[in-house]
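Per-record layout

source: Tumebacillus flagellatus
name: Glycosyltransferase
length: 323
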Amino acid sequence: MPVLSIVVPCYNEEEVLPETTKRLIDVLEELIADELIHESSVILYVDDGSRDRTWELIEQFNRESRFITGLKLARNAGHQNALLSGLMKAKRNADIAVSIDADLQDDLAAIRAMVEKFHEGYEVVYGVRESRTTDTFFKRFTAEGFYKLMRGLGANIVFNHADFRLMSKRALQNLGRFEESNLFLRGIVPMIGFRSTNVYYARAERFAGESKYPLKKMLAFAFDGITSLSVTPIRFVTMLGFIMFVLSILAGIWALIAKIAGSTVTGWSSLMVSLWLIGGVQIMCLGLIGEYVGKIYKETKRRPKYILDIDLDPLGDAKYVGG
Ligand code: UDP
Ligand code: MG
C-alpha cells in the first residue's frame, strides 16, 4: 500500500488550521481503514514564514497526532515554493503526494477519488473545479481570461485546476529535475507526462481568514506564469516591430513622392500622434524584453527557492537540507 503525504502550504493560517487538521485526519483514517493507503501516511504542513501562531499550532498537532508533521521555512518563500519544499520532502519518504491549500476551499472528498485513480494506474491526478460560483465575478472573469490566454500561447495547462493534485513518486522525482527558479507548478506538471486524469469537485468558500492572494499578487502570478512558460509574447513584439518597420518604409516612400510632387506636409497633429504611438509601443516592447532579461538574470543566479528552518520529521541524512 502506498504511503501518502498530504502537503499543505500555510501562510498565516491559524484561523483555519485546527479545522483543517481535524478534517484531514478523518480523511487519512478512512483511507487507511479502507486499505487504500499505508498507515504511516502523514499530513505535511509547510509553514511559509507565517507571522501568526501557525507554527506553534503545527508543533502542537505534531505532538498530539502521529499523522501530523511539518516543515518550517526560514522566511516567506511564496505559495509555489512552499508547496515545492513539501513535495520535495514527500518525494523522499512517501509514494504519493496530494497537495492542497490550508483553507478548505478544495473538497477533501476528492482526495479519496484521487487515491483511487492512483490505484487504477494514474500517476498524476488533477483536481478540477466544476464551478466557480463561490468566487467573485471579477475573479471568475480574470481566471477564465488567464486560462484562455495561456492556452492560446501554447502552454498546456489544465483548465480550472489550481494546485490541488496527486502525484506519484516518479512524477515527484521528475518534478525535482525542473531546476528553474521561477517555478509555475501548474504549467510544469503537465510537462512531466505519465498517465494523468482529472477529478472534478465543487470549490467552496474559504473556511476562515482572508485570501493571501490579493489582486496585485494575483496579477504578478499570472504574468510570471505566462512569461515563464511561453516566449510567444516576445515573438509578438518582434513581429510588431517588423510590421512597423515595413509600414514606416512605405510611409517614407509616400512622403518622398509627395515632396517631389510639390505638396507640402501640413499635418503637425498626425506627426505628434504617431510619435507618441511609436514611443509608447517602443517602451512597452522594451519592458517586455526587460521582463525576459530579468528572468534570465534571476535564473542564472541559481538561488535556493526556499530555506528550511525546522523539519519535525528529519530524514536521518546529513546532506538533507530540504531540497
Ligand atoms: N500561501 C503560502 N504562502 C504565501 C501565500 C499563500 O503558503 O505566500 C498558502 C496559503 O496559506 C494557502 C494557499 O497558499 O494554503 C493558497 O492561498 P489562498 O487560499 O490565500 O489563495 P486563494 O485561494 O485566495 O487563491
Ligand atoms: Mg484559498
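summary: The chain has two domains: 4-213, 231-301. Residues 288 and 294 are 10 Å apart (CA to CA).
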